[in-house]
């Protein structure tokens, strides 16, 4: 039997837990500004009785006697409120109360729509009667949260409430402002004093920004009762120079947005400016002036950091821009220069937590393998672990490398078309703007990527079979050499050890959330305690995803990791083989964006593949490590399947689907 050192893996587990603990403590201390910010999770009900999950950052200076400015923030699609914590932290350090919310169908908020992004599509520069009541306003709950802050939080300055959001959240900020302006037009109160959009833009008609809302009470265009509502609020835009989704204008790609007519519209909303064609908007400048002869002065600002859409709310540049804007719009109780940030330290602590999490799962499973009960899963001796022979001769090497390259590259050629085909069954516009789920698989993003990985797995199995008949069989390899057979008791033990190990890892994640209020993450790749609902959804996706991870384990361990090659080089090559197709997609997409300002592929679907880089790299390491211990592919393949399915399902948009098929 393969001999494992229990002490070695106990030490590794201790190291993993220390890393996780450092992550928890460090992230918590930074997130609370060493105890000077109170971070509280709670929920409210919207006007229709649906739960809106919130996290509030409340600084010490915010009291009923000294009310503070407040900012409500909303994440982008497929994200959750925690992804806005950099925004929350930096504003709260400066004395702002900040409320970060989960959009419906995301995070811990209720899921009650067949597409939570529907509101995104209905928000235009021509709002109608739907905006007259908070129960029908398409703001995805942001109007309710602003109303809650305005009416229920005594420590909030009612005259200084701002809203901000990334991508979907930015569009909902526009909707929230539209709702409030219409309330004001009908004799109510506009509760919003400032708007800052990340990765989105002012409302437009056919791509042309409008300097006002054209409120249409009877929802009948050109009926003569339209009411112009001008933006008498502070307004800022953060337009990434490499934003895949926005800011394409007559001036060229997003890099040149500051030269565009739409950028001039933003500034010309102020009475004091009349920029004409050829006049560039000064990036980062705070423009100030009146709006339609108002007594009060307002500001406008355009920022253009060199970053992609998905990085907006994680970057130092955009966070600094957001702080700069709100400290100019409001009176910051604790002014700190916008360039003085600490989010990079939280980013560091969050990231090492991801490493600690994966290490703890691996180490715990390895320790279990040293016990008498699970030890029967180990290979009886080293010679029982099948190692493919290195390719021989020119022909053998050509076949090997061609198959390896095709296995890595071919799946990339049908990724986007397959995902678009799945989404296209709701119509062409839906296919380009959202992702589509079913009653069985109610998470569109997970479904599209799951279908692709499943198809890639089938292709891998086909290559594995072809390679066997072309090469391995002729070299005397028999299927029995692969050690695929397993007793019933060992099947049960395999399932048990995988569940126990993943459960242990998530126990650590639950501990982090309960005692420190943090999770483990790298950008939007979040490992947190999953809800019961997301676990049930993950169970439905597991059979779909399993095709890939089992096929991948077979191909890599029984075919591609060959004898005579150093183990680290074997693993490195297989990691590269797994991600090479994605690398090509990204190079093709972003080289065009950088050089010509245009995207060549579906922008949303490409940017949302980035977590696969992590999955496809880590899965190779996990699969290989357990294969070398057991001589079988099953523990690694099953662990990868469950682990990455749960991680994905716990952090995306869930639809309320009524359709069984696409």
UniProtKB/TrEMBL annotation:
The chain crosses the membrane at residues 12-30, 347-378, 398-418, 451-471, 491-515, 535-555, 567-588, 608-627, 634-656. It comes from Roseburia amylophila. It holds the Pfam family AXE1. Residues 33-183 form the Acetyl xylan esterase domain. Keywords: Hydrolase, Membrane, Transmembrane, Transmembrane helix. The keyword Transmembrane applies. The keyword Lipid metabolism does not apply. GO terms for molecular function: carboxylic ester hydrolase activity. This is Acetylxylan esterase.
